[in-house]
Each structure stands twice: as C-alpha cells, then as structure tokens.
Amino acid sequence: MPTTECSGTTHAPIDVMVVDDSAVVRQRLKAIIEADARFRVILAADPYEAVALLRKSVPGLILLDVEMPRMDGLTFLRKLMRQHPLPVVLCTDQAERAVTALEMGAVEVIAKPDWRDAGRLDVWSHNLLESLRNAARAGRFPMLEDRASPTDPRHTADAILLKVPYNPRTGPAERIVVVGVSTGGVQAVQRLLSDFPADAPGIVIVQHMPPDFTGAFASRLNNDPKIAMEVLEARHHEPIRPGRVLIIPGDQHGLVRRTGIGCRVELVDGPPVCRHRPSVEVLFRSTAQAAGPHASGVIMTGMGDDGAGGLLEMREAGSMTIAQNEATCIVFGMPREAIRRGAAKLVTPLDRIAAAVMAWNAGADTGSWH
Hints:
Elements: E1 14-19, H1 23-33, E2 39-44, H2 47-56, E3 61-65, H3 73-83, E4 88-91, H4 95-104, E5 108-110, H5 118-138, E6 176-181, H6 185-194, E7 202-207, H7 214-222, E8 230-233, E9 238-240, E10 244-247, E11 253-259, E12 262-268, H8 280-290, E13 295-299, H9 308-316, E14 320-324, H10 333-340, E15 346-348, H11 353-361
Parallel strand pairs: 1-2, 1-3, 3-4, 4-5, 6-7, 6-13, 7-10, 8-10, 13-14, 14-15
Antiparallel strand pairs: 9-12, 11-12
C-alpha cells in the first residue's frame, strides 16, 4: 500500500489504476478522475498490462471494466484478491456480474455511462468520484471530507416525509427490523441474514446499489442455502411479514407504512436524501413513525452519515437500535456517525447482530456491549 502522508496536513495523491481495453474510455476516465486532485491515474489496457504494472508499484485503488478480450474483469478480480487484495470499483451494466464482483470483494460497483448523453455525464462523473472515495476509505486512506456542491444540494428526509412523532395508540402487532448498509454491504448482509432463523421478524433493507442491481442481489440472497428467510426485491405496497426479507429497489425510496395490525413497504420517487436513493434516513424515519417500539433498526458498514439521524429518531420513538462495530466494518462511517449522535443503544460485531435482534424480539434486555 503506498504512503499517502506528506508533510503538514496534506496528502499525496492516491494512485487509481484504470483497467479498460478502450483507449478512448481510458483517457476520458483519466480526465474525470484527475479532476479530483486527491487522485492520480495509472492506465492499463487489460489485466495482463495491469499485472505487469502491479509488479512495479501497487496502486491505492483499481477501477475495473468487466468485458475485455484477453481476460475478463471477474477473472482478474479473483486473481487480484488472492495476490494483491486492493479496493476495487467495478464498472458494468450486468447485474449478475456486479453482485458476483461484490461477493468476491469489490468495494463498489457503478453502472457504465452513456458517453453520448452529455446531460447525464456530469451526474455519472460525480457518482464515480464518490465511489472512488468510498473505495479509498475502505482502503484506510486518509481522505478529505466530501464537500457538497452548490449544484448537488444535499436533501434531508424532509424532502420525502416530514418528521412526526410515533402514535402508540395504533401500533402494529408484529415486530419488524430495518437495516441500512452501504460500502462493503453485500458480504455483510449475507452474513447477517445467514444468522436469522426462518421465522424471524420481517426485515427491510436499504443497500446503496445502482438501479437494476438490487433485483439480482435479492435473487442471489434468496438462493443462498445459508439463508433461511425468503428474500425478495420489494414491490410497492409489499407486506412486511415474518420470515421475509425485502430489499428496496435501487433508485427509489422505501418507506414503512402502518396498515392495520401490520406494516407494508411504500416505494416513492423523489430527490436523493443524504446523497442516496434509496436512503437509509428515509427508511428509518418512516419506521420510527410507523412502528416505534415495535421496530429494531440496524446500521452497518458504509461511508457517510446516511441513516444516523433516522436511527436517532427510531431510538427516540422506543425502537431497539443497533450499530455494527468498527472492527467488523469495511467502512465505519455510517455506524460511527450514528454512535456519535447517540442513536445506537447497542454497538456489536456483525456476527452478534442477529442474536441481539432475536433477543429483543423475544422481549429480553440485550443491555449494551462494544
């Protein structure tokens, strides 16, 4: 891992190796990435050239294409994780390959841009740089704090639903669990769900992921023999039931709404909240309002602060609130901010979260441990 410390408070640029077989795309990616002075780009035309460069110097991050003629990106990723485990951002439109890459250890996946659509390219470039910063944080690089751009306003959950108190007179009969997770979340969610029994309370998950990828993610989880619960991509007005896990689709906000004795998921459009759609903040706020003490909120690995305020609202409404501990997070940003705000009643390793939720569901006092 290269040294990033310089004299004073500045940091040397982080080397980003771009592996793509198109010379035109490589140059365009270089221009986009180096617009952020924290990054410096190294170019490789294919995985074989990347391997040769790795023998000379190990970069901080890798931005990897999937479809290349001499060796595809997934094959290279598999070899890389055995020999030089590095933070990798994968660029692909193929959902199944994206989920496979995240399972193999890629930190982030971003959909390929339409280079002909200049109107959307600025947004894509912003998202790429955010993914690279996430990967840098996963690689334990010291990074400057992100600064919100005047052209990219940071919306709060108020843009989707206003804050109102929980009404205890008409609470749901069944308990529910809501989970928020981002960078490093695919492997974390797999582990979390594998620890729940088939009759666990209904679970709703926001995993920051591009549109069209969440369906493949849900399908992969549902076919995992280690996971006893049913896993589905949520549809509008989908009931939240014991034994079922609902993944909120990419590019839509997911809200929990009370319906008689139970709850359901409502999918809505709207601006990104905390720079994300779906947003953990929106899910948690809606759960605080709909279920209060009948809900448990879990915030796990991820960069930024999405969900920290919503988890605090859940705790204030009487919910059980849990944050994944630093030692088991790929990126501790989201749990750290929730803990800093006093939102987490419990801070615990990943492999003890499900047990804590089930103890709460059984009515036991889980206490607190770190």
